[in-house]
């Protein structure tokens, strides 16, 4: 089973700060780094580390190609990434050195140069047992989901950065929607519906330090988080998503899959960075056993 991820690939310009910047404030950084990131890249790496077969569909600047080794080294299939002359997508990530909370500004750049031909080519070998995954950081998400649905793939939509109109338009195609609590509230207000009226096969609402809630064909329940001391929350949601979907694709129940996602995210926030902090499957399984 393969997971086809139409996903962003960014360079993260990472600033560690004594506190998050207020309007009009100039602040000196405590530390500075450049990391490979983007929601799509983060999720592909988390999927691969969790043991999934993942094919990434995306675009990146040719001059920055060496940064892709962070994906290649963990086993992500990069055959459907276009290397372009344009600038890579990028993000400015500001992290509070005391709390681990962050502020992020992104620029799509190459992520919005993905072609329909790329999508068609990538899905040629797709089978009905496969999954299609996308976020809101690239072009052609709707077209990708339509093409995947025509091939019989199941659709996982990680609807972030959240756009209510786009998310609502893609619900009829979506088998599994993953959003945080604020995004879920915004979607329900936009649609003027109760969560039970969305009609999704599977909905997961992440609740940060309160864990996650599931509503769908396998019931209505919550999964508690693992207690850790956070260092940096950047990429926690992507890590959760990758381990969650990999576990589902390997036949786990939703409850067990959410536990794997929660454990992975809990470990990820104990380290600096996003993609580089994603834990191994062995680390995740150890944490789960320790808390059984």
Question: Helix and strand layout, with pairings?
Answer:
Elements: E1 2-6, E2 10-17, E3 31-37, H1 39-49, E4 53-61, H2 69-72, E5 77-84, E6 89-96, E7 102-107, H3 116-122, E8 131-134, H4 141-150, E9 154-158, H5 164-170, E10 176-180, H6 181-191, E11 202-206, E12 212-216, E13 219-223, H7 236-249, H8 254-268, H9 281-290
Parallel strand pairs: 1-4, 1-8, 2-6, 4-5, 8-9, 9-10, 10-11
Antiparallel strand pairs: 2-3, 6-7, 11-12, 12-13
Q: Could you explain the architecture of this structure?
A:
The protein is of the alpha/beta class and 292 residues long. The protein has a single domain, classed as 3-Layer(aba) Sandwich (UDP-N-acetylmuramoyl-L-alanine:D-glutamate ligase), CATH 3.40.1190.20. 30% of the residues lie in helices and 27% in strands. The protein has 9 helices and 13 strands. It has a 9-stranded mixed beta sheet, with helices on both faces. Strands 3-2-6-7 form a 4-stranded mixed beta sheet. A hairpin with a 5-residue loop joins strand 6 and strand 7. Helix 7 packs antiparallel against helix 8. The radius of gyration is 18 Å and the shape is globular. The two termini are 29 Å apart. The model has no long low-confidence stretch (mean pLDDT 94).
- Oligomeric state of shown chains: single chain
By CATH reckoning, the class would read Alpha Beta
Distance between the termini: 29 Å
Poorly predicted regions are: none
- Please give the domain count: 1
Strand order of the largest sheet: 5-4-1-8-9-10-11-12-13
Order of helices and strands: EEEHEHEEEHEHEHEHEEEHHH
Radius of gyration: 18 Å
Rough shape? globular
* pLDDT averaged residue by residue: 94
What fold name stands as the CATH topology? Answer: UDP-N-acetylmuramoyl-L-alanine:D-glutamate ligase
CATH homology-level superfamily: Ribokinase
Estimated structural class: alpha/beta
Main sheet specs = 9 strands, mixed
Number of helices: 9
CATH architecture annotation name = 3-Layer(aba) Sandwich
β-strand percent reads 25-35%
The count of strands amounts to 13
């Amino acid at each position: 089973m393969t997971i086809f991820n139409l996903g962003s690939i960014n360079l993260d310009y990472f600033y560690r700060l004594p506190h998050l910047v207020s309007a009009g404030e100039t602040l000196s950084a405590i530390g500075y780094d450049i990391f490979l990131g983007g929601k799509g890249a983060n999720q592909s790496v988390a999927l691969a580390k969790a043991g999934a077969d993942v094919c990434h569909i995306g675009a990146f600047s040719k001059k920055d190609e060496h940064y892709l080794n962070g994906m290649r080294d963990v086993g992500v299939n990069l055959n459907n990434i276009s290397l372009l002359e344009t600038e890579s997508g990028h993000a400015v990530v500001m992290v509070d050195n005391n709390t681990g909370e962050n502020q992020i500004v992104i620029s799509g750049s190459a992520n919005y140069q993905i072609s329909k031909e790329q999508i068609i080519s990538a899905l040629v070998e797709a089978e009905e047992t496969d999954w299609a995954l996308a976020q809101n950081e690239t072009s052609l998400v709707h077209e990708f989901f339509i093409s995947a649905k025509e091939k019989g793939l199941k659709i996982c939509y990680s609807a972030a950065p959240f756009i209510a109109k786009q998310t609502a338009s893609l619900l009829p195609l979506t088998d599994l929607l993953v959003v945080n609590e604020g995004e879920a509230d915004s979607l329900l207000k936009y649609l003027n519906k109760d969560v039970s009226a969305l009609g999704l096969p599977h909905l997961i609402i992440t609740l940060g330090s309160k864990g996650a809630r599931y509503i769908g064909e396998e019931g209505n329940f919550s999964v508690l988080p693992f207690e850790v001391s956070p260092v940096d929350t950047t990429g926690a949601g992507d890590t959760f998503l990758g381990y969650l979907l990999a576990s589902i694709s390997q036949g786990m129940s939703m409850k067990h899959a959410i536990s794997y996602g929660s454990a992975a995210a809990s470990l990820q926030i104990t380290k600096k960075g996003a993609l580089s902090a994603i834990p191994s499957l062995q680390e995740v399984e150890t944490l789960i056993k320790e808390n059984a």
